[in-house]
Design a protein that fits this description.
The chain has helices spanning about 15-25, 50-60, 60-65, 105-120, 165-170, 235, 240-245, 295-315, 325-350, 450-465; strands at about 5-10, 30-35, 45-50, 70, 75-80, 85-90, 95, 100, 100-105, 125, 130-135, 140-145, 150-155, 175-190, 200-205, 210-215, 220-225, 255-270, 275, 280, 285, 405-410, 420, 425, 425-430, 435-440, 445-450. By secondary structure, the chain is of the alpha+beta class. The chain folds into three domains: about 5-70 and about 95-175 and about 265-350, FAD/NAD(P)-binding domain, CATH 3.50.50.60; about 180-260, 2-Layer Sandwich (Alpha-Beta Plaits), CATH 3.30.70.2450; about 395-465, no CATH class. α1 runs parallel beside α8. Bound molecules: flavin-adenine dinucleotide.
Amino acid sequence: MGNKHPVVIIGGGPVGLTMSIALSVRGIFNVVLERQSRVYELPRAIVMDAEIRRAFVELGFGSELANVLTPMSRADFVDSDGNEVMGIDVFHIHQFGLPAVSCHYQPELDELLLSIAKRCGADIRFGCEVIGIDATEQQVSVTTVDGENVCADFVVACDGASSSIRKKIGIQLEDLAFEQDWLVVDLEILHPEASQLPNVTRQVCDRDRPVTLVRGHKNFYRFEFQLQPGEIPSEMNTERTIWSLLEKWVTPKDVRLIRHAAYRFHGVVATSMQQGRIFLAGDSAHQMPPFMGQGLNTGMRDAFNLSWKMALVVKGRAKRKILETYGQERIGHAKSVVMHSIDTGRLIDQIAGRVSHGIEESAGYGGARPQPKLGESRLQFGQQDNGTMFTRIHELEGAEMKDGSFQLVSSTKSMDHFSLFGTPLQSHVLDGIEGMYLVRPDGYVAGVFENNRELAKYLDQIASEFA
Ligand SMILES: Cc1cc2nc3c(=O)[nH]c(=O)nc-3n(C[C@H](O)[C@H](O)[C@H](O)COP(=O)(O)OP(=O)(O)OC[C@H]3O[C@@H](n4cnc5c(N)ncnc54)[C@H](O)[C@@H]3O)c2cc1C
């Protein structure tokens, strides 16, 4: 049996690599065990939202990431004749100082994450499948297919939708009742200057067959075709059928077929994201239909929530109890995102006149359904803005969120000096802020306080419970 590591991450997909990076920059050594011999070479996720991009910027990787991202231009719903039903020019919207939505080509993003994770000092082992896991009160021991035992204080299972770790530790998935079969087709546009394909993310609400179009990063383009009752996914997933479905838009002269696959879109969320020293993150904990482009974003949000807490525990600055807030906060948030994605899917069918689900248009692009909040935890205070990312995070000059510092933001200089988890709060003065915003190392608002006394009481309570 070898040394005990602080953290072992099972799965070197995008969520596992994000977890690795977010721990390494906080000084926590980690080992990533990935069964494949290299990064998955086909695209799945297409978009990154501003919150996730901002989190990477705060960790110091903004400019590298900018090289693999293109801001999304527009998202809309149209009827079968192409008439707009609803839509939004995403290009003009900025959040957290960044484009609201950016497109990427996932294999390129995953390669970048891998190179950053390696550079940050993690021990990344590809071609290393985990076949067993055994936890005691003191540690977790993971067995690889080569018979090696790797021990850790904590294990994060980022092993994807069919997670064997989730099954081994007996965590159930709650089924949120959505099932549709779709064909997903990825293309490369051969002559971009002559292409007639619309530069949008578009849901074509066609009564006979709803179709999704997504203009991706560079010259990549995706089509998704909803399969109809009686159509057998494996029989439909042939090049011949794909080209006949595409012929309304493109021919083999216009595009190169990168891949085609039949997927069952569904919505599930784990009933728990932790068992003792073992945690679930990413698709192992939640899966959703892709209509909102939130699957990977939701997994990365898990990594950013868990990493700062785990770093504080490994450094001995917080008690293990703080890790319980991970599942408390993430499950409710992930469930809202899955439900939104399901409602978007149902709205497509409803607008197409196929079936009425009673879904409000707020579920569609530009429909302005409110952002979900983190589930309640003892880390959060009050009801105002807590549990959402601080919208002016990009204005916090010199903020050092990597070392686990909390930021205190108000419109006047705070005279008192506070600290939490052994680090002084960093103070910022911003115009137009009402009250005192306490911002966590993951950029989320912990609470909004009226005065120093209220803040001091909260900090005492957090220190006695978690520090
Ligand atoms: C058609 C489609 C479109 C999508 N579009 C979007 C989108 O636009 N935006 C978005 O955010 N998301 C989207 N998603 C979802 C997104 O692709 C996933 O949420 C994301 O890839 C999950 O990342 P992950 O790291 O959790 O899991 P995965 O990418 O599945 O990675 C898991 C890794 O764990 C490894 N592994 C598994 N078991 C073991 C083991 N026992 N030992 C070692 N390694 C193991 C696997 O080899 C794999 O590399 C889409 C998904 C689909 C199917």
